[in-house]
């Protein structure tokens, strides 16, 4: 089966600034694909090119077999887009927002009523159908934007940082809804700078920085490949840090790496044995954290920086 | 799902050069707006009717005040060359000016907020609508607002007619399409200006430097023959002047070949004005 999204040498420039720099990736049909990277990594520019909002500067980009340079309308018919900021019509009710949106897709009144009921139900907003937008919580607005993006029954749902600014509960509800959509066969493309979001939701992801791709793969594979299974984190004094370093460099050998970000020392690929030695150096077990490696560590390994500053 | 194919280019054909993508016609540099312009217009209409209580009364109060202050107040000191009272002279001008204001407010502030503050254009762009269709929808809506407000003012004038003889001919109804046509022109210029505006406060420039001079010097308050030639020549280049003159003809019922000229002026200016708006806003929207 051909990929539903295929980018080859994709470039986006705004004047002198290169926002997306020779990006290559593929998204398979039905996949939950993530773009992980800090602000300014080029995630939004990439999805705007997929959505035929910004023209591409160079390279090729195909969506559902169609060229984004040519078939803007056909592609837009097959996409649902959830933007970073809620851009609902504040003056219209919840239901009216969806009705107005359905019209752009030439969906008949009868069809749109049915789909809107379904969408509101799916997003747990049926009881708020006649509410004004300003009466909704942040999480409800987000879910309404998702319901709006589903009104044309898209083959691909694109979400730009869908949970930024939401409280943990609202966030988990959005995650649950997205997993449900994935089970229904919708291909999902999500951008995020939260590593836990990417790790929980995505089948595969691309890690981006400064418009470039750093790595592509399944979360677990990326972690295994770039970091190893576990990480030792030390928040200790400079002298202890030096001592820990002296011990760890030979102890880790070829199988691990050390990285210092500000006053924190990370030992990637460390073992429980290493941890207990370092705990003794620190003299305080709370200053040493031995944990499973995650995507944040991958980003750290690849860039030497933390993901969210 | 209905699949819509309105580009003549299909996927397997050669990719057109940059200037011809997304339906753009090379010579014009824009795509021809399709029926989604009407969807954008519908969206604005729906919001307007949601807020009609707030939107509908000011357009009635403002011209009534002007009739009172200028027509009845100042007008008693004004002597015209013909038999008309000043308030009768004022009528067609007020109608054209306030229709202009309605169109300009919509195309300038309304559109700027939708573009820059509320993300309305972003939301629409995610649908099959093209930037050109957003712009065309906005222009049509600005023109409609002009026509809606003109309707209200004409009703006020009809109500006042038994007392002041404001409307002398049933042709006055044609002032409404005039309001729409001038609204298209003003809406287009407004949109073109929005494409270069970088803040809300910059919109005031357009209003002060373009709209207000027209308001005063388009033959609505006084006949232009009293002005120096350069000033009346300048006025001839403004759309409002031709709107006022057309209204004057329709409301009084005294039409001559000159009115055909005013109509032709507006018809000729409309396409380039719309093109300018499409071209400049397209660039602003798609970056």
Description:
The complex is a heterodimer of chains A (309) and B (287). In chain A, helix 6 (168-183) links the parallel strand 7 (156-160) and strand 8. With 309 residues, chain A is of the alpha/beta class. Chain A has helices at 43-50, 72-78, 94-104, 109-122, 138-149, 168-183, 195-201, 219-226, 238-252, 272-282, 295-303, and strands at residues 5-14, 17-27, 32-36, 58-63, 66-67, 79-82, 156-160, 187-192, 204-209, 212-217, 230-235, 257-261, 264-268, 288-292. The model of chain A has no long low-confidence stretch (mean pLDDT 92). In chain A, 46% of the residues are buried. Chain A is built from 11 helices and 14 strands. In chain A, the strands form 3 sheets. In chain A, strands 6-7-8-3-9-10 form a 6-stranded mixed sheet, sandwiched between helices. In chain A, strands 2-1-4-5 form a 4-stranded antiparallel sheet, with helices on one face. In chain A, strands 12-13-11-14 form a 4-stranded antiparallel sheet, with helices on both faces. Chain B has helices at residues 36-50, 52-56, 58-73, 86-117, 120-125, 131-164, 175-194, 203-216, 229-236, 239-252, 257-286; strands at residues 24-25, 30-31. Chain B has a two-stranded antiparallel sheet with strand order 1-2. In chain B, strand 1 (24-25) and strand 2 form a beta hairpin. In chain B, helix 4 packs across helix 10. Residues 1-12 of chain B have low confidence and may be disordered. The chains are: A alpha/beta (309), B mainly alpha (287).
Outline:
Helices cover 38% and strands 27% of the residues of chain A.
């Amino acid at each position: 089966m051909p990929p539903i999204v295929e980018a080859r040498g994709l470039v986006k420039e705004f004047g002198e600034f290169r926002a997306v720099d020779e990006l290559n990736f593929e998204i398979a049909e039905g996949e939950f694909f993530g773009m992980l990277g800090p602000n300014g990594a080029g995630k939004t520019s990439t999805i705007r090119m997929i959505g035929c909002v910004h023209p591409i500067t160079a390279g090729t980009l195909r969506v559902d077999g169609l060229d984004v340079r040519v078939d803007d309308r056909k592609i837009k018919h097959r996409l649902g887009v959830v933007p970073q900021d809620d851009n609902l019509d504040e003056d219209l009710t919840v239901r009216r927002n969806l009705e107005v949106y359905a019209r752009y897709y030439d969906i008949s009144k009868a069809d749109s009523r049915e789909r809107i009921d379904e969408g509101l139900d799916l997003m747990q907003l049926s009881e708020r159908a006649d509410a004004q937008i300003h009466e909704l919580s942040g999480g409800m607005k987000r879910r309404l934007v998702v319901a709006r993006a589903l009104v044309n029954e898209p083959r691909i749902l694109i979400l730009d940082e869908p949970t930024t600014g939401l409280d943990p509960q609202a966030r988990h509800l959005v995650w649950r809804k997205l997993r449900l959509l994935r089970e229904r066969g919708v291909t999902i493309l999500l951008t995020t700078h939260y590593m836990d979001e990417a790790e929980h939701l995505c089948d595969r992801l691309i890690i981006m920085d400064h418009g470039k791709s750093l790595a592509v793969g399944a979360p677990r594979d990326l972690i295994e490949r770039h970091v190893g299974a576990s990480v030792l984190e030390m928040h200790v004094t400079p002298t202890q840090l030096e001592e820990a370093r002296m011990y760890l460099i030979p102890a880790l050998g070829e199988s691990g790496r050390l990285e210092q970000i500000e006053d924190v020392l990370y030992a990637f690929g460390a073992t429980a044995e290493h941890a207990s030695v370092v705990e003794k150096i620190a003299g305080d077990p709370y200053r040493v954290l031995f944990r499973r490696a995650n995507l944040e560590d991958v980003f750290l390994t690849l860039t030497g920086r933390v993901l969210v500053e | 799902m209905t699949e819509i194919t309105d580009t003549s280019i299909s996927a397997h054909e050669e990719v057109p050069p940059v200037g011809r993508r997304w339906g753009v016609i090379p010579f014009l540099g824009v795509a021809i707006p399709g029926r989604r312009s009407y969807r954008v217009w519908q969206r604005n209409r729906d919001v307007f009717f949601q807020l009609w209580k707030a939107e509908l009364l000011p357009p009635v109060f403002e011209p009534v005040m002007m009739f009172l202050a200028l027509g009845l107040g100042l007008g008693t000191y004004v002597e015209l060359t013909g038999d008309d009272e000043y308030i009768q002279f004022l009528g067609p001008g007020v109608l054209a000016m306030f229709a202009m204001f309605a169109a300009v407010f919509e195309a300038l502030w309304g559109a700027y907020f939708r573009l820059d503050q509320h993300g309305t254009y972003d939301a629409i762009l995610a649908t099959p609508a093209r930037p050109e269709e957003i712009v065309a929808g906005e222009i049509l809506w600005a023109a409609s607002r002009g026509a809606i407000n003109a309707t209200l003012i004409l009703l006020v004038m009809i109500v006042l007619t038994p007392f002041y003889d404001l409307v002398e001919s049933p042709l006055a109804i044609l002032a409404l399409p005039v309001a729409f046509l001038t609204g298209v022109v003003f809406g287009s210029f407004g949109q073109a200006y929005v494409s270069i505006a970088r803040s809300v406060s910059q919109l005031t420039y357009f209003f002060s430097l373009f709209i207000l001079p027209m308001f005063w010097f388009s033959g609505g308050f006084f006949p232009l023959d009293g002005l120096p030639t350069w000033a009346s020549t300048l006025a001839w280049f403004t759309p409002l002047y031709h709107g006022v003159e057309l209204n004057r003809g329709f409301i009084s019922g005294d039409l001559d070949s000159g009115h055909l000229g005013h109509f032709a002026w507006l018809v000729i200016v409309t396409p380039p004005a719309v093109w300018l708006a499409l071209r400049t806003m397209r660039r602003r929207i798609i970056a």
